[in-house]
């Protein structure tokens, strides 16, 4: 029972929530996009957790789910990239399992260094095990990522934030987005509300800055990193709102820039933006503390 709770907590940490019930709802939600994504979501976090336990990583960090979320994302990425035509193919699951282990090991490097990794271990691993494998045609695998769904009608465009929630985990279902939103709302109503608003703002900003096609926007492709930025910097101060807005703007620009290279951006827009915002936050708040008071 404890292992299952820790595994689910790791899934909740995808959205920076240390809550196993959030992880349960996220996992259930993934089955509405594809059964393989639901299984990979749970199995990836389990592999990451067991890897951390087997290598005697700090128990407190394991229980917080810090070694589950990157592994979960890495395994879902493998199934999303290669499993559309034949999700039962053993090679794909083995590749996903290896990616989950590698992502966990990279996460440990960041934890030992005391640096915020966010989802970078997943991104770095997926560049090698998903984008790289597909790009060079290794192991007889070809990219079978499903095409974008046609969400250009007004109703689907209006509910874009839910598709952005789903897109964090490679999902493409309205119900997936609803389950993910609900899972976060149970843990942190503020994060859920800020994340939804952020998805809308990020999408609108991408449309304004780069003239992205409407279907990509409606699928949440420029909203999901914004959701994660909001979850990372949610707070009660006006300054927190400024950090979120700055982070969203940076995330959209960085994601677009990476996409122009042909490399899959994954959540790198969120990661790089968050690192930059953390640097700015540290500088600004240190300056404020150092300023003489009247």
Topology:
Elements (H helix, E strand, L loop, with lengths): L1 H11 L7 H11 L4 H20 L4 H5 L5 H14 L7 H24 L6 H17 L17 H5 L1 H8 L6 H14 L1 H22 L3 H5 L5 H10 L4 H23 L7 H23 L4
Question: What distinguishing features does this structure have?
Answer:
single chain; 294 residues; mainly alpha; globular
Short description:
With 294 residues, this protein is mainly α. The protein is 72% helix and 0% strand. The chain has 15 helices and no strands.
Describe the structure in your own words.
It is a single chain. By secondary structure, the chain is an all-alpha fold. Helices cover about 70% and strands about 0% of the residues.
The arrangement of helices and strands along the chain is HHHHHHHHHHHHHHH
The overall strand count is 0
Structural class of the helix and strand makeup?
mainly alpha
Q: Mean pLDDT, nearest integer?
A: 92
Radius of gyration: 18 Å
Largest sheet: none
Helix content bin:
over 70%
The N- and C-terminal alpha carbons lie at a distance of 56 Å
- Ranges where pLDDT stays below 50 over 5 or more residues in a row are none
């Amino acid at each position: 029972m404890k292992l299952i709770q820790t595994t689910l907590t790791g899934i909740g940490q995808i959205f920076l929530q240390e809550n196993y019930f959030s992880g349960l709802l996220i996992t259930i939600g993934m089955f509405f996009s594809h059964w393989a994504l639901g299984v990979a979501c749970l199995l990836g976090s389990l592999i990451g957790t067991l890897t951390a336990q087997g290598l005697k990583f700090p128990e407190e960090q394991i229980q917080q789910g810090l070694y589950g979320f990157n592994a979960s994302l890495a395994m879902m990425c493998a199934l999303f990239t290669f499993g559309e035509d034949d999700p039962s193919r053993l090679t794909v699951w083995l590749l996903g399992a290896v990616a989950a282990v590698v992502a966990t090991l990279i996460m440990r490097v960041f934890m030992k260094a005391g640096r915020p990794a966010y989802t970078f271990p997943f991104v770095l691993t997926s560049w090698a095990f998903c984008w790289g494998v597909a790009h060079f045609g290794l192991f007889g695998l070809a990219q079978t990522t499903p095409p974008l769904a046609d969400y250009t009608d007004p109703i689907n465009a209006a509910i874009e934030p839910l598709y952005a929630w789903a897109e964090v985990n490679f999902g493409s279902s309205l119900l997936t987005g609803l389950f993910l939103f609900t899972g976060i709302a149970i843990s942190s109503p503020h994060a859920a509300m800020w994340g939804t608003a952020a998805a809308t703002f990020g999408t609108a900003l991408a449309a304004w800055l780069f003239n992205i096609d409407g279907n990509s926007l409606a699928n949440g492709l420029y909203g999901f990193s914004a959701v994660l930025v909001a979850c990372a910097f949610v707070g009660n101060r006006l300054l927190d709102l400024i950090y979120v807005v700055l982070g969203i703007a940076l995330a959209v620009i960085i994601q677009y820039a990476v996409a122009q290279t042909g490399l899959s951006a994954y959540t790198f827009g969120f990661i790089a933006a968050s690192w930059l915002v953390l640097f700015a936050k540290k500088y600004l708040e240190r300056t404020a503390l150092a300023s003489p008071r009247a």
